[in-house]
Design brief:
Strands 13, 15, 16, 17, 18, 19, 22, 23, 24 and 25 form a 10-stranded antiparallel β-sheet that branches. A 5-stranded mixed β-sheet has the order 2-1-3-4-5, with helices on both faces. A two-stranded antiparallel ribbon has the order 6-7. 34% of the residues lie in helices and 20% in strands. The chain is of the alpha+beta class and 616 residues long.
């Protein structure tokens, strides 16, 4: 017998043995011990502590009847069923079912289930229990796994969750309930959008105003004193903490009638545009209809504004000044009303000085400030002429190789992220013994200049730190203004940018010069399947360069030299790089003068005290 025949015989024998074994034994020789069958839901007469859950999604008085009917109905249902005992009625009124976040009674009911106080839950329908598919399925599974298992009966759909065939039906119906909530949310958003487009705005209660029968805002003169005091004190230099303490001491009431003020309550009043007569609709929006969490509207949805919508309590100019002060205060620059400075003479003409703590200015403000020092018909251009003197070597066709292509040890470079920036050690060596610098930007030419400064300058930036015996570069925070830089140069906020520069100097003056179009982009790519905690460790950095570098090693020799012509370096006149520049007024504001503010603050406080004395 060959090896192949032997293997086939062995396999046939194995199969025959398996068939013989699976014929089983005579059923008469087997005793079956039957399982206890679960009682039918309707015929189950065992003792159960039954909880009832009722919910209506709004607190409108017209919904009260639905709310009460649910409670009364299920009280009767439990009392009529033999063996059932009403444990408690849990009810949420005016709460959406798409999230568990604010459903306090519902959460208490689930907790009571976990502590063994409930054996079964009855509710009207799946949509009353939860309109979120994930929450619904997760909860009924958790309840079913408890010992003993806890079931939920949905009366309308006739579903009992301890029935092994219930989950498919429950999943389908809860999906429909969630989609119904989604549709209602979309309809509501569309309705709000239509109202806003017609200038029909929502006007919730606000300190300083009452509403007439038409819903229009009418000044409440007594509350308006508090509003004016808040604005005048902040403009005069008081902090939100100091203002809150003053109002609490004076016993002034909030709109809700509280007499204890917090700094956040003061800030809310200062940031509300309705105090200057305007209305801005849709300051916030809700990205997810399931969790109802609102977020600040950063141009994610349309906004609508009406000026002079109602009578103002404070002037618009005072309101704008307060917003600028608030914006700067977030970055540690308080009590200073920011002003842009633009260089109007010398080689840095058109450059705007950057203050790292000023966040109140837009990208357009920087562009307009730079343009303001030029003649109306002046045009900035990157066109250039080639002038080769007799006897000079003609460099046409030659390129200046880009420094980025070489691994230079002490490179002159600056790097930016959306929140920080940092200079290289080479920059410090190009401006030796300089501890403080100023940054200047030319938005149209896309140039950046770093010039030496002193500690006393309000725009000074400390760019280094002393380590052992030498100064080294440090990371510098710039959240206040870097978003504007990224916007001006159309940079991606998720990337890091590195720019090489050069030192330009004459006998008495020196500064660093950067072309912001020649950037190395560093993109950090997360490793696949990595979580948030390990993504930074496993991420790969991708270095990319501008597409206009394709096919060349650098810039044409004469075009590179033209930079100096743009900055007027070839003229014999003084460079005047230390010019402080002139103030560019982004908007003519007639802000209340400090002496008037002081007088008004004293007058309002005296008036409040006299009124209190009269009431006592």
């Amino acid at each position: 017998m060959t090896g192949s025949e032997e293997r086939n015989t062995t396999q046939a024998e194995q199969k025959a043995k398996i068939r013989e074994r699976y014929k089983g034994i005579d059923p008469n020789e087997l005793d079956v011990i039957p399982a206890i069958q679960p009682a039918d839901f309707y015929n189950d007469k065992s003792n159960k502590r039954v909880a009832v859950y009722a919910r209506v999604s709004t607190d409108d008085p017209t919904q009260t009847s639905s709310y009460e009917l649910q409670k009364n109905h299920y009280t009767d249902v439990v009392s009529r069923h033999e063996g059932w005992e009403l444990s408690q009625i849990y009810a949420d009124e005016g709460i959406s079912g798409t999230s568990l976040q604010h459903r306090d009674s519902f959460k208490k009911m689930i907790q009571d289930c976990k502590t063994g106080k409930i054996d079964m839950i009855i509710t009207k329908s799946v949509s009353r229990f939860a309109r979120n598919v994930v929450d619904c399925i997760k909860l009924v599974r958790e309840l079913a796994k408890m010992q003993p298992p806890i079931g939920v009966f949905f009366e309308t759909e006739n579903i009992y969750t301890l029935n092994p065939n219930s989950e498919m039906s429950l999943s389908f119906i809860s999906t429909l309930a969630q989609e119904e909530s989604h549709n209602k949310s979309e309809i509501m958003n569309a309705s709000i959008e239509m109202r806003f487009r017609r200038g029909i705005f929502l006007t919730p209660p606000l300190l300083g105003y009452d509403q007439d029968e038409n819903g229009d805002l009418i000044i409440n003169q007594d509350e308006a004193k508090t509003v004016r005091l808040i604005f005048f004190m902040y403009l005069y230099g008081y902090t939100c903490v100091q203002i809150a303490e003053t109002l609490t001491r004076l016993g002034r009431k909030t709109k809700k009638g509280n007499v204890t003020w917090s700094p956040s309550a003061i800030l809310q009043q200062l940031e509300n545009e309705r105090h200057c007569g305007d209305v801005l609709a849709r300051k916030t929006w809700t990205p997810d209809y399931l969790d109802h969490k609102s977020k600040k509207n950063k141009h994610d949805r349309n906004q609508y504004q009406i000026r002079n919508h109602h009578e103002a309590i404070v002037s618009r100019d005072d309101f704008i000044a307060v917003q600028r002060l608030i914006s700067n205060a977030k970055y540690g620059c308080s009590k200073i009303l920011p002003q842009l400075k633009v260089i109007n003479e010398g080689v840095l003409k058109g450059f705007v000085i950057i203050n790292q703590k000023w966040a109140a200015f837009t990208a357009d403000d920087y562009i307009n400030a730079s343009s303001s020092v030029y003649e109306k018909d002046h045009r900035l251009s990157d066109s250039y002429q080639i002038d080769v003197n007799a006897g000079d070597f003609d460099f046409r066709g030659f390129q200046i190789a880009r420094a980025e292509l070489f691994n230079i040890r002490e490179k002159t470079a600056i790097s930016f992220t959306i929140s920080t920036f940092k200079f290289s050690a080479g920059c410090l060596k190009k401006l030796p013994n300089v501890l403080y610098i100023e940054m200047l930007i030319h938005p149209k030419l896309k140039l950046l200049v770093i010039r030496p400064s002193t500690k006393n300058s309000k725009n000074a930036i400390n760019w280094c730190v002393l380590k052992e015996t030498e100064h080294q570069p440090k990371s510098i925070g710039g959240k206040a203004f870097l978003s504007r830089i990224f916007e001006l140069f159309d940079w991606d906020a998720t990337c890091k940018y590195s720019i090489r520069g050069e030192r330009i100097a004459n006998e008495t003056e020196a500064f660093l010069f950067f072309k912001m179009t020649d950037t190395e982009v560093i993109y950090r790519e997360k490793a696949p399947n990595s979580d948030e905690t390990t993504s930074l460790l496993k991420s790969n950095s991708i270095h990319a360069f501008p597409i206009h570098w394709t096919g060349c090693f650098g810039e044409e020799y004469y075009r590179n030299a033209q930079i100096k012509e743009l900055l007027d370096f070839k003229n014999n006149k003084a460079w005047n790089t230390a010019s402080e520049g002139i103030t560019y007024v982004t908007e003519e504001l007639e802000v209340t003068k400090p002496d008037i503010l002081k007088s008004e603050i004293g007058s309002i406080i005296d008036n409040i005290k006299k009124a209190d004395d009269m009431h006592e």
